Structure formats: structure tokens, C-alpha cells
Amino acid sequence: MEGKEEDVRLGANKYSERQPIGTAAQIQDEGKDYKEPPPAPLFEPGELTSWSFYRAGIAEFVATFLFLYITVLTVMGVVKSNTKCSTVGIQGIAWAFGGMIFALVYCTAGISGGHINPAVTFGLFLARKLSLVRAIFYIVMQCLGAICGAGVVKGFMGHTQYGLLNGGANFVAPGYTKGDGLGAEIVGTFVLVYTVFSATDAKRSARDSHVPILAPLPIGFAVFLVHLATIPITGTGINPARSLGAAIIFNKDRGWDDHWIFWVGPFIGAALAALYHQVVIRAIPFQSK
Question: What is the spatial distance between Cα 281 and Cα 211, in angstroms, rounded to a whole number?
Fold first, then answer.
């Protein structure tokens, strides 16, 4: 017992609860166990001659391809079924989207950052986490991957059946207005991109180092929850590449009528999340223990 009491005493002294606040926290750099990465330049010529740049783009392409393949096939299975009991239902669709994001972010985070979503790339670009050239390259590769993924699904399902099942395309459901759909996409993407910023924040990693958190887990869980909420409204986009890939392969008026919503909404949501992160979260002084 004496040894345990000594451990407690030493621990209490080592991890003092008293922390500097305000400007005192900002000027005390000693003991800070995290490092803020410098803002990414708008244009970095060296990127275009680096293999890691193209390797990251390939990773985004493959990840988005796999994402569309699994998720759109899941949607097809649910829509095709005559009874809810014989399919995974809306909850299964949400798990497919969230689970794939978890797995793919985990696999590609060390290569490209694991964006797999133009809205995420756009938000991180606004926060100066990557250059304009890399952001554009990522978005192009994500869209190409999404088109290929949806195309493979159509090859499996067949042209006629794929068309009858709406191709997994996003559109505003009957009973909701375009404003409803736009609002759902804005808020849903805000939740996702805000989670991305929070899960990958250097300050948070240092502060919560005693609680190991795998960043892809909260990101995937955020995607799952947003899908549960907004599948009945828009089928849940929050990812312009996912919406574009399905719309191009489906290629019918229903897939294009509301398509602008699935670009404007996610980009507004991502911009708001980036602004909130920079103005509110990053402005809070922090001195790790």
C-alpha cells in the first residue's frame, strides 16, 4: 500500500491540473509536445516532379473506386428487395458508407491523407493543409474513381436493372423541397468535415494522448450517423464524387435534376467547417500537460 500511495503522489505532482490560460498559454512554448505544421503553399512546383504526389492521387482514385463499388452495390441490393426483412435496410446502407470510410481512411491516411471526398479536400485546402495543385489533382482522381466504381456496379447489375433501381444516384426525395435537400447536405457535410478536423488536430492528439483514438473511427462513425439522418431526404451525398459517379453512370434526368445540390451543399458545409475550425477551435490557447 505504501508503494501505491507513493505512485499516486508522484502521479499527482507529474500531471498538475493547473494550466496557464489566455496569453500566458500562448507565450509558453516550453513543454509543448505537439508541432503545428506550416501552412501549405498555394502552388508548390516540386510536387509535380515527386512520385509521392502521383502515388497519393492513385491512392485517392483506388479508394474512391472501392468506396463506390461497395456502397452503390449495397444501395442496389436494398432497393431491389421487395421486403425489408430480406435486406440490410437503411441501417445497412449507413453502415456500408461509414464502414468503408473507416477502412479506406485507415488504409490511405499515410499515403494521401485519406480524403476520398472532394468536400473534405476542399475544406482542408481552405485551412491551408494542402496546396491548390494537390487539391485539384485529388478531386479529379476522386471523381474518376467514383465513375469507375459506379460503372463496375452497372456492369454487374445490367443496364436495364441498374436503370430501374435508379443507379444509386442522389436526388431530393418526394415530399422535400430543394431547400430541404440543400440544407441537409450543408449540415451533413459540416458534421463530416468538422469531425475530420477534430480527429486529426495536433493539439487534440497531444492533449488526449492518454486516450488512444484511431482517427478513421470517428470519421467513419460521423458518415454513418449522417447517412441515418439524411438518407430519407437526399439519399445522402455529402461527397460530390460519389454523387457525380452515380449520376454519370445512371445518366437520366432524375439523377441530374438536383445534382447541383450535391456540389453546392457539401462545398458550403466544408467551408463552414473549415472556418469554424480556424476561428473557434484553433484560436483556443492550449498547453499540453
Answer: 20
DSSP per-residue string spanning 218-243? HHHHHHHHHHHHHHHHHS----HHHH
Cell numbers placing 134 = 494537390
Q: Would you state the pLDDT for residue 179?
A: 96
Mean pLDDT check: name the lowest of 1-15, 28-42, 102-116, 180-194.
1-15
Nearest-angstrom CA–CA distance, 214 and 209 = 11
Other CB atoms closer than 10 Å to residue 197's CB: what's the count? 21
**Most distant CA atoms of the chain, gap in Å:** 77
Among 193, 191, 189, residue whose Cα is nearest residue 261: 189
Mean pLDDT of 220-247: 96
Which tops the pLDDT comparison, 189 or 279?
Answer: 189
Three-state SS for 165-182 is: CHHHCCCCCCCCCHHHHH
Question: What tens digit of pLDDT does each residue of 81-134 get?
Answer: 766 666 788 899 999 999 999 999 999 999 999 999 999 999 999 999 999 999
Residues contacting residue 17 through CB under 8 Å, at least 6 positions apart: none
Q: What is the DSSP letter of 32?
A: -
This model's pTM is above 0.85: no
- Quick one: how far is CA 283 from the chain centroid? 23
pLDDT band at 212 (very low <50, low <70, confident <90, very high): low
CA pair distance 250, 153, nearest whole angstrom: 11
The cell for 81 is 428487395
Q: Could you give the 3-state DSSP secondary structure of residue 116?
A: coil
Contact in structure between 229 and 188 (CB atoms under 8 Å) = yes
Instruction: Give dist(CA 98, CA 72) in Å, integer.
Output: 13
